[in-house]
Known about the structure:
about 20% helix
Amino acid sequence: MIDLDAVAAALAGDPRCAGAVVERGTRTLEFSSRSSDGLVEYDSVGGLRATSREPEVLLITHPSTSTEFLVFLRTGTQRASLFHELGTLDGDTYLALYAAEPAGLHAPGHDDSGRTRSDGQSAGVWAMLATARPNEVVDRLAAVFGQRAVAPDRPATLDRERADLARWAAPDEPAAGWLTAEPGAVDVVARLDPVRLRHLFPRDAKNRLEARAQVLLAALDEGRDRTRRRFVLARGPRRVGGGDVTVRIEAVVAANVAHRFDLMPWCWRADAGALTDPATWGYDGADADAVALLSAGDVPGGLAAAGLDLDEGVARLVQGLPVGVIADDPDWPVVARERLCRLAPWLLRGPGVAYARGPGGRGTHPMRLFSLPNGRGPRRAAVLLVPLRRPRLVLQWAKTNAVLPQNLWQRPPVPGVW
């Protein structure tokens, strides 16, 4: 069994693990040290053999980091797949991978055989690595890394939400001619309420109309959202800080558009119900406790009160913690908390889940809410909605442009609704 002091010391040293040797920049691991009888001894996770000619579970540290652990000895080849660099996963991995931490190391945990995870879900993820008993590794690494929160207690977007609500009472005065229509979109403009559209149009962090934002207003062609078809849409200013919005006709793939007022026509139509009426938004007040917690910055408590399940990765992010020693990006908890603190439980569970299930209402394929920053490669880490009877938020590495429209899961910036 490897000495646990060596595990901690290895964080600042060269890559090593018992008799394993690895060269920097390569993607293979060779085992060069064997005992006199030709066997290598490892005490492994998950009930694997303690002595094996082909060990399956190992702990390997990366030099000078506390976040890089290399995984999965390919049975029969004496080779292991390595991560490319800090915080990245192999391109074939698309589910969240957790390293030496309480969420992932105790049995049953993630492994490549699909055994039950600690959150009750099946997984097809690579095995955890450890050359000591799980609780020993967890205790030692917890002492080295700590359960350090890296996100502020109060998400900054709550201050933006407060400013959005205040803007309703004192709206900005647009310049004359701020709204223009291209030929072919005149009929839609005749039914449009400019005040509604301007107030609900996406804004940037400085409360300006979001440059080049696309807001779908009405479909002109029948078809599925994942095929390109014509829409009447409102497009934001061409430059940052501009104040003009143009209504035009474009062919777009609707599934990739984050702002879908065509699914909520009261967001732009003059003949729709009052925006300040909760009934317009389908809200009956049942989620008041969840909304109060979320708007106060208690994201874990608010999501639980909203009746949402979280996988281990999202559960850590909303607490302000890194996912684990493999995915240790400090921006991820910040972004996850800032986005999810503005969640509207009744919208997500209602029209959000219905949209994610697709035509027929039977789909359960996860749909992306938002991506996490600093991703590399074709697959990016994202928080996704699994549209089950009890909706579930999961962390996955996804290769998709499709997104659940924001207006189907975020609180509207309208006072009196919630």
